[in-house]
């Protein structure tokens, strides 16, 4: 589904990540800042791309500030931003988020 | 329901906060309660719910029972909370502010639907009802017998004392009626009973005194808010070696004298009869579940 507007999710607390998702017309751009970028930057970007693929997000600017979040939190924050950006609050297809 | 399953401690975790849910299993509580209700800010309810789902799906809680406190039935949030919890595979759902049997049945129906929708075995997700008002306490038995899914009932003192116009005290006299009524209902219904949280985490002696009191009253466990409370509660709820030994003596003595037609006898200097056996077996089952008894009397 097309993103309707910019949305933000998460915090800058340790073990969390803050994600800002904004619609654009020119593909997917991920800007990652991470306290563990050296070790995990590539994997984090791959994970975020997988989530975008599952959610059919093709055109978006994604700014991520990661504070050492686990994969489950990174996925959760991006999905939260996505559902906020499309104004969906209920009837989540939970199994599709796995 | 599995009565021998230890549920001495249930620690609340604010699901909004990633740092709290990522590794709470290291504290080794018997159960965790992922909170979607009071601890979560209104504007972060969606974030907490999605964090919940992935925590349930992705993290290994090493056999610790995972419960989800959903939002109350007067919100527009609880339906999706139930769907997320069931889809994620939570062992149980804790319903706050339960007032009637119908409240539990409504949740049980939604759990039924979610289990079908997300391909989970129907009937496997338990429900626990938190009683937080005078009406809830008066309806405790009806609530406790409202659904085969109901594993137990729990007292929640914050709202209860507020609605009773009472004050929380260290001794807890203001909760005496509620604790007694809740226990009577739970035992009559054959479900478990859990006590409320002790909110002063800087008063270990007060906490110890309260846990001993609720253990002696007959509660199965206590809701916790701090990892510091877990070990203390486990120690108090686990029978000590002297109690375990006495329980073995009671069972062995009653069994040995049964054939002789002797109904009343003396064990370790105390008079016992057949009525003591059930309590002794319960002590041994608790000790066995906690790993401090490995015999075969239970």
UniProtKB/TrEMBL annotation, chain B:
<dbReference type="InterPro" id="IPR015813">
    <property type="entry name" value="Pyrv/PenolPyrv_kinase-like_dom"/>
</dbReference>
<dbReference type="GO" id="GO:0016829">
    <property type="term" value="F:lyase activity"/>
</dbReference>
<feature type="binding site">
    <location>
        <position position="159"/>
    </location>
    <ligand>
        <name>Mg(2+)</name>
    </ligand>
</feature>
<protein>
    <submittedName>
        <fullName>Citrate (Pro-3S)-lyase</fullName>
    </submittedName>
</protein>
<feature type="binding site">
    <location>
        <position position="132"/>
    </location>
    <ligand>
        <name>Mg(2+)</name>
    </ligand>
</feature>
<dbReference type="InterPro" id="IPR040442">
    <property type="entry name" value="Pyrv_kinase-like_dom_sf"/>
</dbReference>
<dbReference type="InterPro" id="IPR011206">
    <property type="entry name" value="Citrate_lyase_beta/mcl1/mcl2"/>
</dbReference>
<keyword id="KW-0460">Magnesium</keyword>
<keyword id="KW-0479">Metal-binding</keyword>
<feature type="binding site">
    <location>
        <position position="132"/>
    </location>
    <ligand>
        <name>substrate</name>
    </ligand>
</feature>
<feature type="domain" description="HpcH/HpaI aldolase/citrate lyase">
    <location>
        <begin position="8"/>
        <end position="227"/>
    </location>
</feature>
<keyword id="KW-0456">Lyase</keyword>
<dbReference type="GO" id="GO:0006107">
    <property type="term" value="P:oxaloacetate metabolic process"/>
</dbReference>
<dbReference type="GO" id="GO:0000287">
    <property type="term" value="F:magnesium ion binding"/>
</dbReference>
<dbReference type="Pfam" id="PF03328">
    <property type="entry name" value="HpcH_HpaI"/>
</dbReference>
<feature type="binding site">
    <location>
        <position position="69"/>
    </location>
    <ligand>
        <name>substrate</name>
    </ligand>
</feature>
<dbReference type="InterPro" id="IPR005000">
    <property type="entry name" value="Aldolase/citrate-lyase_domain"/>
</dbReference>
